[in-house]
Amino acid sequence: MAACVIRRGLLSTVSKYHKKHTLRVINVDFNSRQEVNRRRLQCSTCSSLNIQQKRFMSSRNRPEGKVLETVGVFEAPKQHGKYETGQLFLHSVFGYRGIVLFPWHARLYDRDVTPAASDSKPEPPGAHGSKEVKGKTHTYYQVLIDTRDCPHISQRSQTEAVTFLANHDDSRALYAIPGLDYVSHEDILPYNSSDQVPIQHELFERFLMFNPSKVPPFVPRDTLRAWQEKNHPWLELSDVHRETTENIRVTVIPFYMGMREAQNSHVYWWRYCIRLENLGDEVVQLRERHWRIFSLSGTLETVRGRGVVGREPVLSKEQPAFQYSSHVSLQAPSGHMWGSYRLERPNGTFFDVRIPPFSLESKKDDSPNGFLPGPFTSLA
């Protein structure tokens, strides 16, 4: 896996020096969780620097039997504008290698920002608080994840997948395209590589081709454009919701998946991706979840349970974030969800972290078409 999983303490260092120094990315084959915590960056032009010396790993102090491999060279992150299709990057939180397929423009509703009267979204009925939240346009990217890195991030993030309801006679089928993720602009750490196939993913060469005359040198094939156009309603995110409670930030991204017919009624499905991030120094562990699900049909459902997706993740300074996806269905074309997580401190006390309210909105066209043949995994 790429050795440059950037922890919060390193971000300021990278930002300070990226204009003057080229940071060389290293690939280290780590086999244990303890070794994963020792991943660092190596500077190719300023090896004599003593600043943050303990935070850098070089070939002189690599674990015995491990091999350092050059992956590429960092580029200066873009402060303005967007990254183009074919841009190689490292995820600044989860550290995986990836490549940008295309950007999306979403409305970010950040409850940590002082609300304004205009361009706001009201609270759903019964949700905590009464303030409205102003939305601002923010860039996200549909990306491919390097499959070599998936085993190394499995403890902190599910290997993301885009899911669809099948357009087949068997309306029970749910299909997933693994190794896809949505990444915020600020989580992109761009780099370049001379490798013509720098990312290992079975869709890489079907979606992109190498063109040395272009910058970046990986350009979209017609299959990528067609896939994006035909499946646009099921790929595009529209709203992103964020809120912080006691240094724990929760970000929610809902996606509409489609509609099924069951027993002479319509059932609408959504996927939602959630990231929890510890912005403080105290180690905490997620113990319980509490959801409230409101449907336009007038029903209000309460869901309580242990952990999330069968896990009780620990959020620490070394591994501050955890990301997962789940699904929800309503017998109405729209609704709302909100709730809280209960986290435990090292001293055994508990506190609740708010999940920001978010809307579940369906699309007019409920018939996804033009599936790319494979590599789909049925989740039914």
Supply the key terms.
13-stranded mixed beta sheet, 23 strands, 44% strand, 6 helices, disordered N terminus, 380 residues, Immunoglobulin-like
Structure description:
- This protein is mainly beta and 380 residues long.
- Among the domains are: 1-74, no CATH class; 239-371, Immunoglobulin-like.
- It contains six helices and 23 strands.
- The protein has helices at 8-17, 33-36, 150-153, 204-207, 222-230, 232-235; strands spanning 23-28, 42-43, 68-74, 88-91, 97-110, 120-121, 133-145, 161-165, 174-178, 180-184, 188-192, 208-210, 218-220, 239-245, 248-262, 265-278, 284-295, 300-306, 314-315, 321-330, 334-344, 350-361, 377-378.
- The strands form four sheets. Strands 1, 2, 3, 4, 5, 6, 7, 10, 11, 14, 15, 16 and 20 form a 13-stranded mixed β-sheet that branches. Strands 17, 18, 19, 21 and 22 form a five-stranded antiparallel β-sheet that branches. A three-stranded antiparallel β-sheet has the order 8-9-23, with no helix packed on it.
- A hairpin with a 4-residue loop joins strand 17 and strand 18.
- The protein is globular, with a radius of gyration of 21 Å.
- The two termini are 31 Å apart.
- Mean pLDDT is 76; it is low at 1-63 and 367-380.
